[in-house]
């Protein structure tokens, strides 16, 4: 069966917003039209993608899987179209992926000051498959946080950052200044294994609603700070390693080599 990219884009919008009305506004189509398209898509795939109620839209297990696939497929198609247009204009472009919470802007600014005519873009590297933008061609280089599948990638160590325990502000441990791993014994921990999630925002929402505690990097905690959550240092938790990564099966041109040199120096100083 051929996959209908238009319907896939419609589904991705609904999955992102978990709301037909807001998705329809984003897509500039009428809500009844969107509903019919999603229903037809489910019939073509012969599986339910969404659970609809009068107040909310939730993803089924199949819907969550398709949402992950849709983000990759639509991102790859958009990147391919962009490369075609760049080729027509004779433009040069460098696309950098980054893990949630990691800031690559200083490295890009330093690179742009040396290569002002090179266009730069950034794409998020989702925590459950951080290496995907490198493998599907959406990015030439990535600033990532371990762990991820590094097979077929060249990595350059940058540094490490501590992990903190993220919990609701009402949790009994939230009044402590710091924790150890022993303090978390018996607590329900949220991980990619125990609770598959489609975004880091979903993880924080689950934590805030009392589904459990999660160990996250300090940079992600700072970037996604919210008043109903508390982040406490865990003194004996292993730190998260950070690195630059490129695919070894693609030729490194001078621009990419120069970016790696600039980014390595810039990010290690940060």
TrEMBL record:
<dbReference type="Pfam" id="PF00126">
    <property type="entry name" value="HTH_1"/>
</dbReference>
<keyword id="KW-0804">Transcription</keyword>
<keyword id="KW-0805">Transcription regulation</keyword>
<dbReference type="InterPro" id="IPR036388">
    <property type="entry name" value="WH-like_DNA-bd_sf"/>
</dbReference>
<comment type="similarity">
    <text>Belongs to the LysR transcriptional regulatory family.</text>
</comment>
<protein>
    <submittedName>
        <fullName>LysR family transcriptional regulator</fullName>
    </submittedName>
</protein>
<dbReference type="InterPro" id="IPR005119">
    <property type="entry name" value="LysR_subst-bd"/>
</dbReference>
<keyword id="KW-0238">DNA-binding</keyword>
<dbReference type="Pfam" id="PF03466">
    <property type="entry name" value="LysR_substrate"/>
</dbReference>
<dbReference type="InterPro" id="IPR036390">
    <property type="entry name" value="WH_DNA-bd_sf"/>
</dbReference>
<feature type="domain" description="HTH lysR-type">
    <location>
        <begin position="3"/>
        <end position="60"/>
    </location>
</feature>
<dbReference type="InterPro" id="IPR000847">
    <property type="entry name" value="LysR_HTH_N"/>
</dbReference>
């Amino acid at each position: 069966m051929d996959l209908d990219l238009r319907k896939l884009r419609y589904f991705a919008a609904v999955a992102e917003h978990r709301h037909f009305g807001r998705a329809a506004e984003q897509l500039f189509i009428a809500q009844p039209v969107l509903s019919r398209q999603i229903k037809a898509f489910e019939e073509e795939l012969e599986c339910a993608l969404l659970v609809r109620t009068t107040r909310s839209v939730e993803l089924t297990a199949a819907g969550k899987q398709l949402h992950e696939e849709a983000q990759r497929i639509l991102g790859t198609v958009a990147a391919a179209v962009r490369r075609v247009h760049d080729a027509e204009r004779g433009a040069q472009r460098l696309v950098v992926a980054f893990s949630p919470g990691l800031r690559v802007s200083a490295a890009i600014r330093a690179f742009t000051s040396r290569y002002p005519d090179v266009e730069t873009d950034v794409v998020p590297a989702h925590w459950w498959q951080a290496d995907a933008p490198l493998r599907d061609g959406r990015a030439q280089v990535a600033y990532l946080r371990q762990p991820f599948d590094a097979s077929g990638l060249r990595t350059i160590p940058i540094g490490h950052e501590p992990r903190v325990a993220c919990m609701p502000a009402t949790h009994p441990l939230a009044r402590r200044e710091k924790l150890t791993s022993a303090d978390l014994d018996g607590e329900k921990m949220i991980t990619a294994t125990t609770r598959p999630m489609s975004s880091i925002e979903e993880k924080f929402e689950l934590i805030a609603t009392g589904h459990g505690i999660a160990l996250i990097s300090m940079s992600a905690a700072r970037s996604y700070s919210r008043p109903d959550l508390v982040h406490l240092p865990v003194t004996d938790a292993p730190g998260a390693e950070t690195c630059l990564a490129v695919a070894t099966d693609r030729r490194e041109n001078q621009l990419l080599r120069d970016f790696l040199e600039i980014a390595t120096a810039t990010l290690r100083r940060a």
